[in-house]
Amino acid sequence: MLNNKKLSFIQQTTADSIDKKLCKALQKEVLALNEKPEAFEAVALRIFRLQAEHNPVYRDYIKLLGKRPEAIHTITQIPFLPISFFKTHEVRTGNRPIATVFESSGTTGAEVSRHYIHDKAWYEKVSQYTFERLYGKLNNWHILALLPSYLERNNASLVAMVQDFIKYSAQPSGFYLHDHKALAEQLNTLEAQGKKTLLIGVSFALLDFAEAYPMPLKHTTLMETGGMKGRRKEMIREELHAVLKKAFSTAQIHSEYGMTELLSQAYATQEGVFELPPWMRIYLREANDPFEIEQETGAINIIDLANIESCAFIETQDLGSKQTTNKVQYKIMGRMDNSDVRGCNLMWK
After folding, report:
1. Considering the domain boundaries, does residue 267 fall inside one?
2. If pLDDT is split at 50, 70 and 90, which confidence band does 211 have?
3. Best label site of 171, 290, 330, 334, fewest CB within 10 Å?
4. Are residues 53 and 139 in the same domain?
5. CA angle 191, 195, 197 (to 5 degrees)
6. Cβ contacts of 175 within 8 Å, gap of 6 or more
7. What number of other Cβ atoms are within 10 A of residue 325's Cβ?
8. What is the DSSP letter of 13?
């Protein structure tokens, strides 16, 4: 493993240039993986070589590992960049103008991750596709969002995603900051009308709402995004879901898994088992050896090929296990010990 002294030599230089035409061509290749999943490795290697050349942070990291990009011919040989670099460096591929910067919530006084977004429309397209692939067209849903800690900031990727969803959803839809009474009234109205509704919320806010306004939800899908934000004691996902199921008399709680450093999301329609979009893959590494991957249970490495202009190969601090049924899915188990608290996931038991 590399020590911190070596990592400190990674340069914060201006990214090399890649043009809009190339980015658009790669976006098309990424979306085409829905029809041609067998092309995943070829597209991943193409994006890897682009980023190994035009992303100064990733390029220097690969060099410090003693790897030569031209000698890498399979996915499992690709180095994964530790997610902490998004806190300390500008992880950018190319130097196209920045449209917006997504920031993680972090904890008081902690460094936050920053994801420099060059094409916000691409983020919205990826997010819409991933949701509609599992849940159907957005215009069939009324979307009610309970994301107070995210709305209190103006640069959260989750808020940007839900804002975009609401724009295309059936009306009434919208955000609810702290007005639980108004949210309860709107839910009751939509339930009485039999409307297809999504209530998406950060964990602590859903628990607060459940205590104040328990109600049976027959036509509403309840989706948690994780995160106690220091407002409540941490709990494992199963415990959270049990409380919400009881309060809302529902058999199933859905989950969203996303993070500032990724443009893609994964969704769980069953307890903690997440399905990935076709341009995203998870590899499980041995927790004490970041270069030993392809485990059945371990720390999560993610390939998110939507991250064309940042880094598509990320070593996270989350833990997971492979769930193989008729297709490969993953259970997100929580955070590694001694890692930063993040807002988008739960504890590991």
Report:
1. no
2. very high
3. 171
4. no
5. 85
6. 145, 146, 147, 151, 162, 166
7. 7
8. P
Q: What is the pLDDT of residue 294?
A: 67
Within this chain, do residues 114 and 55 fall inside the same structural domain, yes or no? yes
Same domain, 67 and 177: no
Token output for 298? 């371990």
- Model pLDDT for residues 21-70, shown as the tens digit of each residue: 999 999 999 999 999 999 999 999 999 999 999 999 999 999 999 999 99
CA 247 to chain centre: 27
Distance of CA 206 to the CA centre of its chain: 19
User: Cβ neighbours of residue 188 under 8 Å, at least 6 residues apart?
Assistant: 215
- Number of structural domains the chain divides into: 2
Look at the alpha carbons of 274, 275, 277, 281 in this order and tell me if their dihedral is positive or negative. positive
The residue among 347 and 120 whose pLDDT is bigger is 120
Question: Residue 13: which domain range?
Answer: 4-118+276-313
The reported pLDDT for the residue numbered 150 is 86
Residue type, 141: W
Per-residue HEC secondary structure of 97-129 comes to CCCEEEECCCCCCCCCCEEEECCHHHHHHHHHH
Same structural domain for residues 253 and 126?
yes
Q: Which CATH number do you get for residue 196?
A: 3.40.50
Lowest mean pLDDT among 80-84, 85-89, 129-133, 235-239: 235-239
In a domain, 321, yes or no: no
Q: Is there a domain that residue 171 lies in?
A: yes
pLDDT attached to residue 59? 97
CA dihedral (242, 247, 249, 255) positive or negative:
negative
- pLDDT > 70 in the chain, percent: 85
Does the residue 60 lie in any domain? yes
Q: Are residues 133 and 235 in the same domain?
A: yes
DSSP codes joined into one string, 286-338: BTTBTT----SEEEEEEEETT-TTS-SEEEEEEEEEEEESSSEEEEEEEEPTT
Whether 125 and 216 share a structural domain: yes
Same domain, 113 and 127: no
Within this chain, do residues 94 and 133 fall inside the same structural domain, yes or no?
A: no
